[in-house]
Amino acid sequence: MTPFAIYALLGVSLLVATLLPGLTHRIALSPPMVLVAMGMLIGLLPLPDSVSLDPEANRSAITHVTEFTVLVSLMGVGLALDRRLRLRSLASLRTWSPVWRLLAVAMPLTVLGVALLGWWVAGLAPAVALLLGAVLAPTDPVLASDVQVGKPVTEEGERDPDEDDDIRFALTAEAGLNDGLAFPFVHLSLLLLAGGFGAAELAEWAGFYVVFKIVVGVAVGLLVGWGLGRLAFHSRTAALRLAEQGEPLLALAALLMAYGLAELAQGYGFLAVFACAMALRNAERGHGYQADMHALVERLERLMTLAVLLALGIAMTNGLFKAMDWRGVVVALALLLVVRPLAAWVALAIRARKHDVAGGLHSDERRVVAFFGVRGVGSLFYLGYAATHHELPNEDWLWATVSLTIVMSVFLHGVTATPVMARLDERRDRAA
Questions:
Q1: To the nearest 10°, the Cα dihedral for 102, 103, 104, 106?
Q2: Which of 156, 8, 155, 180 is nearest to 77 (CA)?
Q3: pLDDT tens for residues 217-252?
Q4: The dihedral formed by the CA atoms of 212, 215, 220 and 222, expressed in degrees to the nearest 10
Q5: What is the DSSP letter of 146?
Q6: Strand-pair partners of 309
Q7: What are the residue boundaries of the Cation/H+ exchanger transmembrane domain, all occurrences included (predicted)?
Q8: pLDDT, tens digit (0-9, with 9 covering 90-100), for 385-399
Q9: Which CATH number, 3.40.50.720, 3.40.50.2300, 1.20.1530.20, 1.20.1090.10, labels domain 3-431?
């Protein structure tokens, strides 16, 4: 295959990615499904010898590309959320009840469940099994667009009421926050792999990797978002009020500043970006500039997702699954069909809030939220991050298993999202 043929295929893929959202939004076919399938077909063609799709030979590239993809998605998710979060208001915190439950209960249970599968079924060392659990535990903001909220509500337009519900909100906010909260478990697995882990190291992990880095990441993000919001919307100097100029690149500036400063301060940059986006959204909620920034981020996210999914599809038909065996299939199926749904259902069902108040879910809605734990680009990033920081036993098997889980999630959740959400929306309309 010549370089010109590659350009042509990429152009066709970009055109398809541009057309897919409008063509597939009412049928049981998601854009990620089509993009992965296209990548698999492209992978069947003869590729240039210089093109290497071995993840072990491209750890750094995979890590950086997926890192930026997740960052862009986190900014978009934060800008899209319309439900306020006032940390000093108990009533406001209660409206986020499903999110806190998914983060505090479902995510650790998922890490534990996958780690047990990795140790018991796959025969992995405990530290590697924990890493597998940490990598696969977070839901993904990149590939979960079919079950997330849409664009932000501004004075220029209103969101479809069907999109402003607790199901979409819970899944969106969960995906925005748990990408950063998976990091403590990744670091714990790396500390265990390094050896010599005792009580002192456990205390250091809890104090530094759990408490300190989370607090710093959120604080830096809120500070950057608040400052840029004041600048863009309320600056005394007209030339600095970017909202009046309609320049949406502020969203990317905010993303890069929040991430870079949080990491320099040794905080979690993913949490910083999401917190920054929410703070920027709160600076002036009814302004059309919010929709402009979200539109820019959404386009960039679509482009990055195209690249990642095409590369994943091509790799699938070019040897990525050579190390795959029945153990990886069992882990992937068990996570998607048993571990995540059960962990999330337990988190949402215990002392559940009444479904007729904000933050409360009906029993059917709890089952839907529990089922749609989409796995995606974030898992590739975490595995790449771990692989670039420590030599991993069974690394080829880990890449194959994580990739298989993502592809299964893309097709399973892609096929079911449209009919399930449509049925719930119809039921809500009838009740109203």
A1: 50
A2: 180
A3: 999 999 999 999 999 998 888 888 888 888 899 999
A4: 180
A5: G
A6: none
A7: 15-422
A8: 999 999 999 999 999
A9: 1.20.1530.20
